[in-house]
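Exam revision sheet. Question 4 asks you to relate a sequence to its structure. Input first:
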Amino acid sequence: MVTAAVAAISGGCGHVITKTTVTQGTARPIAKDATREELIKRYNAVARGVRSLNATVELKPTAGSKYSGVIQEYHEVKAFLLVARPASIRVIGQAPVIGKTVFDMASDGDTFRVWIPSKNKFLVGTVATTHTSDKPIENLRPEHLLEAFLWPEIRSGEEVLFEEYNDDSGRYYVLTVLRGGYRTEILRKIWFDRAELEVARIEEFSSKGLLSADIHLSDWRQVDSSAPSANTAAATAADATSLFAHTIVIDRPHDDYRLDLQVTKITLNDEIPAARFQLDQPPGSELVHVGDDAQKSVAPAPAQDHQP
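Answer key, structure tokens:
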């Protein structure tokens, strides 16, 4: 190239010499390999490893109206969260800085209760209720958060499909758990990021293939566990049961809301007294039976401490 340039200059030619520079794009992480059986064991090890959870999270609605109807005044909420198997959850949301309670929610897997101090309303309903209100305040559901923290195990009798998926964001393995019965349907999709074989996404489907929840998980870190699971032999990695995602996005398209959760403090498998999941109706508040048209006020109830 240099010789050609000198010849062109000395000969008075009008040739233009171009230089091509090859740049390398951002390299993808090396993808790890795993079999269907190894991924099922890894998923179940994490599911078994979380029997209870005590966490502080920053909670922010990023779309929809179901939660923002209550939280929009504060934009972000600091939430104290307690979870215990099989299906107990308590979530207390407080406004930043001033520490004012925005909501207090609890569910035992059958009945949910929600206390909204700013509205002086106490909501009660069954977890199975599918009624959607045009009032965002009446669509708060503590059990929607439960799915992101307590995963159901993949049972040995369940049919599970296995596939690879690649796109610009990364390379994945996907386990598709099927719902049996009269008509086979998708129950759940579990996405593993092949960079570290960590669960990156869980999609939950209701009947007729409707996407009820799309949960994204990232920023997996080691956490304290006061009582590690006794059944860790199934883990594909020694530390699988001591990892937990610290960034969680819950998208519920048919409930018209999305929540961003950033875990700031977390402890696994503490013994949590049942009384801490108990949420009683505050004195003088209005009782709302979610799913019913009727609303009524109730007699004063005993004072309730709103700190879990």
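Marking note for examiners. Helices lie at 2-10, 36-49, 68-71, 142-149.
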